[in-house]
Design brief:
By secondary structure, the chain is an alpha/beta fold. The protein is 46% helix and 21% strand. The protein has a five-stranded parallel β-sheet with strand order 4-3-2-5-6, with helices on both faces. A two-stranded antiparallel sheet has the order 1-7.
Length: 152
Amino acid sequence: MQLTTRILSTKKNIALVAHDHLKDSLLKWCTKNKLQLVQHNLCATGTTGTLIKQQTQLNVTTMLSGPMGGDQQIGALIAEGKIDILIFFWDPLNAVPHDPDVKALLRLATVWNIPVATNQATANALIQSPIFTNEVTIDIPDYQQYLAERTE
Ligand SMILES: O=C(CO)COP(=O)(O)O
């Protein structure tokens, strides 16, 4: 796969997602890091985002709830280059009905090489890193080249 680059600007588009048993943990993390988070554009799956808005007063664009398509909506935004960072407190100990959607979201985040935190320790590392505040260049698949090779 040929690569090209994408610039993540200083003001990032950040997606926040948490499974039910980890919502308290993500809410605490958002409260603790509110001053950094307020400087970025936030979006979230339906329940997660609504709780973050209620409990932190952060401005969050909400998608549908995860099991109703919210993970897929965020995955689509990632594929379109509209999400720069994914913070996803996913639950490795409880099954969810939309497991294929969860896998698809994590897969697309990997395909498009965006920084992802899937637990609190990595979210802490990410928010303290220059990635969060600086302009960053990431390698991404060269889609035009990919398409050209498949259609020549
Ligand atoms: O299920 C989710 C992620 O897979 C999260 O969805 P909610 O934020 O609506 O609970």
